[in-house]
Amino acid sequence: MAKEFACALTHVRHETFFLEKWIDHYSGIVGRENLHVVIDGDDWEPEVDLTGIHTEVLLEAPRRRIKNDRFMAKEMSGRANKLRKRYEHVIRGDVDEYVVIDPASGLDWPQAFEELTEQGYIFALGVDMVEAEDETAPIDRTQPILGQRRRGFVADRYTKPFVITRWNNWAGGAHRLLNRPTVISNHFFLFHMALADKTVAEERLAARGGLQQHRSFVDHQTGRLEAIADHGLSAPIDFAEACAVGRGQFPVEPDGSVTKRPRAATDPRATEQGLPTIVPERFFGLA
C-alpha cells in the first residue's frame, strides 16, 4: 500500500495564537486531515477549532525544562517514527515554528524534499524573528507575521531537523537528531516566531503560568523576552550573506569537524542570538 505524501506533528500546552497559526500554515501544505497535535496535559483544553485534526492528550510530562525537553523528544520521536509507516515525510516542529521554501528556489514541496539525505532528514536554516524598535505596532493577528515583522537573526539555535523519511530520533529540545551530522538545507527556512510580537510573548508567558512555573521555565522564558530589546538588530547583515555564513559555520565544530548540533557562528558580527538581518520581501506572507 502506497504511503501518503506528508503529515505535520507538534505538541502544545496553553497555546491559542500559535496553535491557530500552526494549523493554518501546515494545513496548507499537507491538509488538515494530516495534522497531528499532541496536547500536553489534561488540566487545560485548547481554545482552538481542532475539527478533523488528529489529537491526543499526553500525561505526566515533567514540569522542569530540561527534563521536559528530554521527555518530549523521546515521546514525539516515537510518534513521528510510527507515522512513517503511513507517510513518506513526517514534519515535526514546535508550535511557534513554521518551515517555508525559499520562493527564489522555484521548488514545490515534493521537489524540495528531494534534498533530504540518504539517512532521511535535513535541517532547515533558522531565522529567529524579533520585534524591533521600529516595528512596535501590534501585529494583525489574523494575517501572516512575515511582512509585519521583518527583522530577526539567522540563528544556530533554531536551525533544526524538521522532517524525517527514515528512522530518526530527536534530542535536545528537537535541536538535533541522535547520531546524525548537521546537514543544512539550501532552500528550507524555519521561522521561529515566539518573539515576533512582545505582547503575544507576554500573553504566552502568563498563559503558561507566569512566575508560578518551575524556575527553569521562568528563567528561560523571561530571558527570551529580554532578547526583544537586543540592539544587535541595528546593524543588519545582508540576508543572503547571513545565510551563507550560517550554512558555512553552523555545521562545524571549532576543530573543523562536522557537528551533530548547529554551533554559533564565529563571524565577528554575530551576537548571542545569531546573525542580525532583514528578511527579504519574497518571504512576506508565507508564515
Question: What labels would you give this structure?
Answer:
287 residues, alpha/beta, two-stranded antiparallel sheet, 6 helices
Specify the number of helices: 6
Total domain units: 1
One letter per element, helices H and strands E, the order comes to: EHEEHEEHEEEEEHHHE
For the biggest sheet, the summary is: 9 strands, mixed
Computed CA radius of gyration, to the nearest angstrom: 18 Å
Q: What is the CA–CA distance across the termini?
A: 34 Å
For the secondary structure, the number of strands is 11
Globally, the shape reads globular
Oligomerization category of the chains in this entry: single chain
Question: What are the segments in which pLDDT stays under 50 over at least 5 consecutive residues?
Answer: none
Structural class: alpha/beta
- The share of residues in extended strands comes to 25-35%
Overall mean pLDDT score? 90
DSSP helix fraction: 10-25%
